[in-house]
Amino acid sequence: METDKLTTARAIMKGFTVLPTVPAAAAKAIRLLNEDDVDMGAVADVMLSDQVLAARVIRIVNSPLCKVMGQIQSVRQALVYLGPQRVFEIILTSCFLEVTDTNNRSPLRIQDCWEHAFGVGLVARRLAESIGYPQPEKAYVAGILHDVGEVILSQHRRQEYMRAMVLAKDEGIDLYDAEVRVFGTSHAEVGRLLGEQWNFPQEFVEVISLHHDSNLGVLPPLTLLVALADRFCIGVGLSSMGEQNTNKILGCADAVRLMQEHLPHVGSCDFDSLMISMEGLTDEVSCAVESIYS
Ligand SMILES: [Fe+2]
Ligand SMILES: [Fe+2]
């Protein structure tokens, strides 16, 4: 069954005339960041040499998502200050914005997709921090990218995707299940193939591919964090379909219950403090998206 979905996703992607690519400057910056002795000045120069990437980076650096600026004077200086991990995160975020923003024909409202992606990124990072996961930033990036297949599939198969949206809304089912019914595959498989094509690290490909797996108990830790964050965000109304199918599928309470059940398997966590830290999250996300989107 899983293999069938992947074969169908491959066939669907063969029909895409133009596939988005990671911008050359971003690809070069990622290569430089992977070198043993990273020269952050050189990375910043490469990023700022591409006008589109530079504009996106400036928006992200100035947004509430990066709260470190204070006394820093220039974007180049900020990138050097933020360091390789954070800059890697900014580049992948900008790639996601690029994919969603370029020639967008998706029937999904792109601002909703961004709010969902940033929401899942922020919640996944918070969950990661709460269990002492060694690289919480990785959880953030994985959260941003987890539904990249949804954006691509909806842009390239617009009519059928609209059918899936109507089905999800009318029957109160998850958009993922509606996709499977309409396409015989889903954004998880399409996203997985794209991630492989773009040479994303294997862990991210795993998150993109498995985040809808209903058997949460067997997921690798990073995928589990994103899968829980995904369910939580949909529960609080940060869904790629806006508020349309919220609560019909899986309410916030169910998502919290899943967190309580599964987080202890990947690390110990003070659940009450975690819940308190999530208050005000939807406002934080809307504010961040507003500042990048406008
Ligand atoms: Fe998804
Ligand atoms: Fe999602």
TrEMBL record:
Return the NCBIfam families for the record.
HDIG (TIGR00277)
Q: What is this protein called?
A: Metal dependent phosphohydrolase
State the superkingdom.
Bacteria
- List the PANTHER family hit by this protein, alphabetically: PTHR33525, RIBONUCLEASE Y (PTHR33525:SF3)
Give a Pfam family name: HDOD
Signal peptide range equals: none
Every HDOD domain range: 19-214
SMART domains documented for this protein = HDc
Any coiled-coil regions, as ranges = none
